[in-house]
Amino acid sequence: MQSKILIVIGREYTTRVRKKSFIILTVLMPFLIAALVALPLLLGMIKDSEAKTVAVVDSTHRYESLFKDTPPYRFVVAARMDSTFRKEGSDVQAVVVISGDLARDPSAAAIYSREEVQIDLRHTVENILNEQIRRDKLAAYQVPELDAIISDVEQDFSIQTRKWSDDGTESESSIDLAMGLGLLFTMLIYMFVMSYGSMVMQGVMEEKTNRIMEVMVSSVRPFQLMMGKIIGVMLVGLTQIAIWGVMLALIFAGVAFASGGSVADALGQAAGDPAAVVAGAAQGNPAAASSDAIVAAGTTVVQNGGLAGNLLIDIPVGEIALMFVLCFLGGYLLYASIFAACGAAVNSQEDSSQFVMPLVIVMIFALYAALGSIENTNGPLAFWTSLIPFTSPIVMMLRVPFNIPLWQEVLSLGILFATDLLFVWIGARIYRVGILMYGKKPTMRELWKWLRFS
Amino acid sequence: MFLEAHHITKRYANHTALNDVSIQVPRGKVFGLLGPNGAGKTTLIRIINRITAPDEGEVIFDGHPFCAEDVARIGYLPEERGLYRKMKVGEQAIYLARLKGLGHLEAKSRLQEWFERLDIMPWWDKKLEELSKGMQQKVQFVITVLHRPPLLIFDEPFSGFDPVNAELLKAEILKLRDEGHTIIYSTHNMASVEDVCDNIALIDHSRVVLQGPVDEVKRQFADGRCCLRAIGPREVLEQMATTLPEATLTEVLPSMNEVFLKAVGQ
Q: Which residues of A touch B83 (CB under 8 A)?
């Protein structure tokens, strides 16, 4: 009897893994994600090339020199409002007209355009004028050495973050890197549970609508068939995770090899400026590091890979990987058994949406709970939703990079897997009746009856 | 008796599908389960397969009350055929055979033998959806009988077959019977019944209205009329016909079925 489950698992696994779509998707997906990240940046660059011309008509001549060209806009100073500006086909996109001292009369400026004025342009102009108006007003108080005072006041401040480890030693913590990793894995686990869960449902529905089940029922028990399918598809998911893990490791190894530095080096750069700030601070720069200092610190990091390496020690890479696999297994088992029961209960694709909808809503709620708790990964929302089984696999992945207590992880997984057992049992009972039931779509009450009497 | 059903009743929400149905299926014979559409044939078959449970009554299988393990000794060809459409024929057949307890090699050699015999070997590596309906049915027929179960249930096995292949399949079914398999053959197509069945039960409106060996059943409905067939010169026979009141002489023509067989069968 045991070997029959193995035969079913074998079929479910091999037919899916050999599919061209699986192979192509598995190989291309990492590149696709990279492309999705890169695309907005590329599009942003395209915007640069087509700078729009904005004419500035300043009858006071006090402000016109402030308008410096920014990437999307090119400012030209015009002596007066020209009627050609209004005409179709004019190079000039918009006209900024300043007719008086803005410090005294804020309504003395306006933007004219043939089309709706872009919010972006409005903000740019407002910022430029605001800055000058503020300086003018301050100047009106006649404070000596005003410029020096202002430049002293306008220092950017960013705090350094340090975390005590269990033995009390200090380490620099990298919140941004942890946040990025948490988000990435949260999205991944959502995608995995969702897509592999519905893969199970598709398979069950295929068996039902093709009436394969009537042939199989004499040789396999429905439970074996259901578990075989769930486990087979799960192995497909694990295969994909393993392939991506290897690819990721190879990519980092490649990058590290190419740059002559360590893997941590590459990651440290990926984490971006905030990591550099911390690294800069660690080098003994004062907290009031100016933006120049940040850049300098950033280059030091690149030169000195060991420093960024310290950041990585704080990110529990192995723990993240292990938790990802466990959360995937737990979450997948839970949702897949419900999906399998749904697939068995309905007769057609159209009917399935009614049963799937609540599941999707719960999963999207979990995703929002994860996003909502990103600011405070130890807050009550994060804590409770990472214990409740339906949301825990998704929210937990957000929290793991932040070094949460072990007992929370163990408790969360314990609850999750206990719930899995319950729902596999429930799913199997509904599946057993539903898979051989044809005719009209069952009501919730009938499903309850199947659960109790079958 | 290989299989007996005693007083089976099955009710659904709005109608009774089977009402006090009892049948006896003798060992090693072909048992015809006949009846118009919606009479309850398929419901009875689903009960024999343990797909659904009866509300009342019991099934005796090979001398003991029917239990879950017995379904492994049944081969069932459902009316609505079901196989994986995207899976290759050979692979699929081996998979289903292994689920029925055959080893991989054993399954493969038996399948190849059957596929050669039914002339579908060239389709071994094709996906099922590429096959015509008749081909798919042949594949499913092979899968049904492959593990040599003592009881075979065929629900409308000939629908969708051309006469040549129907004839081929009919011969295979009779061969299976001669090898000792008990066969339940469900149909509403009476033409094939005489060729294939030894016993029949006729179900109509959820009840068994007629049951017994084919010859006996036919005799029950005989009205005493005889048909005279003679071979001789036309004038002599016309002469003879005039001596009988109401006698008409009709020329014996082959049925369209026979015409088709002769034309296509060569």
A: 210, 212, 215
